[in-house]
Inverse folding.
C-alpha cells in the first residue's frame, strides 16, 4: 500500500523525525529529542503535532445539519455555529465505527473530522466532500500553547475551548478550533496545504517544540482519552467505554440507536476502567486482567506514564469492578499487582 504523506513531510524529514506508517499515512513517531522529552514539553510548555492524517469531510448546504443529526450520536442542537462537538458514528449493533469531532464553522458549513483510516465510513453516511488533501492540521498543545502561538497569530491563540473560528494566519485563510487530544489547553489549526510549511516553521520559531505520535499516545493515555482500535471499535459501544454522555437520547433516531437502547436496558457486560501499577513496567494492550486466578478482562492500552513515573493502562473489566479494587495484570505469565483508579490519570490544573 502506498502511504499518504502530509504537506509537512519534508519539514519532518529535515528535522530528523522517525517516520512510521499510521492509518495509511507516513507520520512522525518522534523527533531526535525523543518521546519522553516531547511528552514533558507538552505538560510544561508547548508542543506542535502534525495531525494531518485526520480526515476532513466538508458537509455544506441546507441539508447538512439533518444528515449529521441522523448519522451521529450527539446532538448538534446543544451547540451552534462557531463551536465544536465530540460525537460517535455507530454500526447497526451499537458499536463505535469511529469517534469524531465536528467543527461547525458557520450556519451551513460543517467540517467532520474522522480518524485517519475511517474517512470512507463518514462519506458513506454523510453527503460531503473529502478535503483532507487540501490542508494540514497543526495541533498546538500545552499550558503555554496560547501564549507562544500568539507571537504567530493572536487571533488563533484566542480561539476559546471548543470554539471554531476562521482566522488569517500569516496571510492564509485557516480554520482554528479550541480542541486537542492531550489533556492540555491548546488549539488545532487547519492550514491550506500551500501555506503549511510557513505556518509550521513560524510556530517552531515561537519556541513550540515539535512532537510526534509517540508523545501524542502517552499524553492521551494519561488524560484517559480513548483511541479508536483500542478503547473504541468493533463490539465496543459508547456505554461500555464510559462515554454515555456522547449519546443524545432525546434527539430522535440515529444509526445504532435500537441496539444501544437494548444494551442500556439490560446493562453493560463490561466497563472501561483505569489501572495503575507501582512499578515502571507498563501493562500492555492485550494483557489479561486477573482477579485471583480468573481472567476477568483485558488491557486495551498501556504505557509508562512520564508524569506519574509508573505504568498505567485502560482495560475492560466487569461492571462490578470499581475504583479502589485491586486486580492483577498477566504480563506474559508474570502477574503485576494493579489497582483500579479514576481517570484521567493526569489532569491539568483548573484555570
Amino acid at each position: 500500500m502506498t502511504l499518504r504523506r502530509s504537506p509537512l513531510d519534508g519539514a519532518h524529514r529535515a528535522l530528523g523525525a522517525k517516520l512510521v506508517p499510521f492509518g495509511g499515512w507516513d507520520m512522525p513517531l518522534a523527533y531526535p529529542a525523543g518521546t519522553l522529552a516531547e511528552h514533558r514539553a507538552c505538560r510544561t510548555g508547548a508542543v506542535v503535532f502534525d495531525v494531518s492524517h485526520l480526515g476532513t469531510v466538508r458537509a455544506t448546504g441546507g441539508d447538512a445539519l439533518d444528515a449529521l443529526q441522523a448519522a451521529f450520536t450527539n446532538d448538534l442542537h446543544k451547540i451552534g455555529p462557531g463551536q465544536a462537538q465530540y460525537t460517535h458514528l455507530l454500526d447497526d449493533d451499537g458499536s463505535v465505527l469511529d469517534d469524531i469531532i465536528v467543527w461547525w464553522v458557520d450556519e451551513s458549513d460543517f467540517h467532520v473530522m474522522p480518524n485517519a483510516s475511517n474517512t470512507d465510513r463518514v462519506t458513506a453516511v454523510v453527503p460531503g466532500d473529502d478535503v483532507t488533501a487540501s490542508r494540514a492540521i497543526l495541533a498546538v498543545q500545552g499550558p503555554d500553547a496560547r501564549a507562544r502561538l500568539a507571537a504567530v497569530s493572536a487571533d488563533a491563540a484566542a480561539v476559546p475551548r471548543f470554539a471554531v473560528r476562521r482566522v488569517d494566519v500569516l496571510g492564509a485563510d485557516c480554520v482554528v478550533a479550541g480542541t486537542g487530544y492531550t489533556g492540555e489547553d491548546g488549539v488545532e489549526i487547519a492550514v491550506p496545504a500551500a501555506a503549511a510549511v510557513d505556518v509550521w516553521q513560524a510556530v517552531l520559531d515561537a519556541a513550540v517544540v515539535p512532537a510526534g505520535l509517540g508523545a501524542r499516545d502517552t499524553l492521551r493515555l494519561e488524560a484517559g482519552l480513548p483511541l479508536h482500535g483500542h478503547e473504541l471499535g468493533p463490539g465496543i459501544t459508547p456505554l461500555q467505554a464510559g462515554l454515555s454522555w456522547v449519546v443524545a437520547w432525546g434527539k430522535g433516531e440515529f444509526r445504532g440507536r435500537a441496539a444501544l437502547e437494548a444494551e442500556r436496558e439490560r446493562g453493560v457486560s463490561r466497563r472501561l476502567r483505569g489501572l495503575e501499577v507501582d512499578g515502571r513496567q507498563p501493562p500492555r494492550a492485550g494483557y489479561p486482567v486477573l482477579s485471583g486466578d480468573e481472567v476477568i478482562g483485558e488491557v486495551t492500552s498501556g504505557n509508562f506514564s512520564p508524569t506519574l513515573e509508573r505504568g498505567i493502562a485502560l482495560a475492560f473489566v466487569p461492571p462490578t469492578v470499581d475504583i479502589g479494587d485491586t486486580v492483577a495484570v498477566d504480563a506474559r505469565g508474570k502477574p503485576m499487582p494493579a489497582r483500579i483508579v479514576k481517570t484521567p490519570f493526569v489532569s491539568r490544573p483548573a484555570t
Summary: The radius of gyration is 20 Å. Residues 269-341 form a domain with the Elongation Factor Tu (Ef-tu); domain 3 fold (CATH 2.40.30.110). The chain has a mean pLDDT of 96.
